[in-house]
Each structure stands twice: as structure tokens, then as C-alpha cells.
Design a protein that fits this description.
single chain, about 220 residues, alpha+beta, Peroxisomal Thiolase, Chain A, domain 1, 2 domains, 6-stranded mixed beta sheet, two-stranded antiparallel ribbon, 7 helices
Length: about 220
Amino acid sequence: MLKNVGIIGFGSYLPFSRIKISEIASVWRKEEKVIEDSLGITEKTVASLDEDTVTMGVEAGRNALLMAKIDPEEISAIYVGSESHPYAVNPSATIIGEALGMGTNYLAADLEFACKAATAGMQALAGLLETGLINYGLVIGADAAQAKPHDILEYTAASGAVAFILGNKKQDFLVEILDFTSFSSDTPDFWRRDGIPYPSHQGRFSGEPAYFAHV
């Protein structure tokens, strides 16, 4: 049970560009309405040529700082979760920290975990905040679309970023985090090997043994 951890600011960023699901379906000569109805979406965001996980993370972080109304140099830790970090070696977290004006006295780390790296970052920050090792921490989740042509992910893998600033002063809380739990498994339903541009997935593992088993 946590006693002194809460969200004091949050922000998001979505690229301006969009592509309609019907346009993608039309290129592959698929039934547009069938695809839209089965997925429940009609369009997705598309990052511009000069946008990536870092640039979108910076924009989301700036919006979170505007809400939190704190000096960026008060943030003592930053975690950036993504499946599409622009560099294999060179942390997104420090690039974003520099752009946000966080100075140099902060812990920084990049996290990777299909679809949940940012929530893992929130849990890591909670421990630092609860023990009083830091007073403010920033976690960012960001991704740029990754999907091989003619794959089902091409319809849904989009781009965007969200940022949360966590603190340990109750008077600043927008939302208090009371507790959390974890459920982790090695389920081979989704992966991307080093050097491979697009992720792979096995639909037969994504139902009962994966998603439904976890939720």
C-alpha cells in the first residue's frame, strides 16, 4: 500500500497527420467496411518525417510540465518506455531530459516492453517517491508506428506520446496512486528481433494464453 505517491501533471502529443483505415484497405483490395467494423477504428495518427519517439516524448513532457507547474530541474528521475526508441545505443531519456531543461542531476533510463513499458516506469518511480529518494519523477510512453506492409498491424500501429509527472506531496496530487500489482509471463505472441524493422506476432498465442490470461 502506497502512502505518498500521486500524479501531479500529465500531457500528451499526437501527430497532426492521419491516414484513414479505408485507404489502407483499398490499397490491399480489402473490404473497407469489414476492416473498419472488425477493428473498431476509422483512422490512425502518422508521425511526420521529422518526428519520432523522442520528439513526441518532448512535446508530451512539455505539456505535463505546464500542468504540474514545477521547475524541470526539480525532476530527479525520467523513464521513457517505447518499442521504437530511435537509437539502439543512446538513451531517449537523456535527449528528452536535455530538451525539457532538466539539468543533469537526474536518473535516466529507457524501458522496453510490448505495450506496457511506461506503466513499468510508473511502478519504478513509485518506489523512489515512496522512500523519499526523489520528490518528482517523469515517465513517458511513446511510439512511432511499426508494421510490415500488408500486416494487420498496419491498420492499428499508430504514433503518439503521453507523459506523467509523479510526486510525493499530497497537496499537489491530481490522482493518488494507492497500490499496484504485477502479472508477467514469457508469452511468444509479439516480438521484434534486433535489426529487424517490423515486429512479428502469432495470432494463435494472442488469445487465451496471452491477452485473456493476463486480464
